[in-house]
Amino acid sequence: MRAQARTRRTNVGALVLALGLGSLVSVGLGVYGRLHEPTFYALNLAGFSSGLVAKAWLATGAFVLVLVQLGSALVMYGRIPGVAGPWWIGGLHRWSGRAAVLLTVPVAVHCLYALGFQGGEPRVLVHSLFGCFFYGAFTAKMLVLRAETPKWALPVLGGAVFTALTAVWFTSAAWFFATSGLTF
């Protein structure tokens, strides 16, 4: 009985540590974005007409990959009746997640450096909050992956990452395409 209680405490401690570090990442990004003087200088990638267009398409790519993440997680956890997970589903899940986060990095750098944390209008405030939350939730999820934490922790954190990136996409790229059209 004592060993079981000690294991539970260790599990909860690892989860609390992951959540604490994730919270520090979220708050740290928000504080930096708020205190940093925005440069309003757009980072641009070759092939795109502007930095905003590049950000919208990179975020859209990340959003599509997060949808792959959701689908592969549902298959891995047996949540789609009648669908047995193929041997490669775990690899698809890992690599689509890596690619999604990599696509978000130039977007986040541009947002923090050029624009900072803004809250002048509700859409922008929600975008800023969820952008910071995304990286905190991602940090916590990565820390929980190899730790001995309660079984519910990984799917909950994965859901938080999915929800945050979805909110970021809807308040930025989807809004941009709705107001500016599908431009390159």
Please tell me about this protein's structure.
By secondary structure, the chain is mostly helical. It has one domain. Helices cover 74% and strands 0% of the residues. The chain contains six helices and no strands. It has helices at residues 2-35, 51-76, 89-115, 122-145, 153-170, 173-180. Helix 2 (51-76) packs antiparallel against helix 3, helix 2 (51-76) runs antiparallel to helix 5 (153-170) and helix 2 packs across helix 6.
**Biggest β-sheet: count, sense, barrel?**
none
Q: Which structural class best describes the helix and strand composition?
A: mainly alpha
The string of secondary-structure elements, in order, is: HHHHHH
Number of domains: 1
Report the mean per-residue pLDDT as an integer.
89
Tags for this model:
184 residues; mainly alpha; 74% helix
The gist of it:
With 184 residues, the chain is mostly helical.
Topology:
Blueprint (H helix, E strand, L loop, with lengths): L1 H34 L15 H26 L12 H27 L6 H24 L7 H18 L2 H8 L4
Helix pairs in contact: 1-4, 2-3, 2-5, 2-6, 4-5
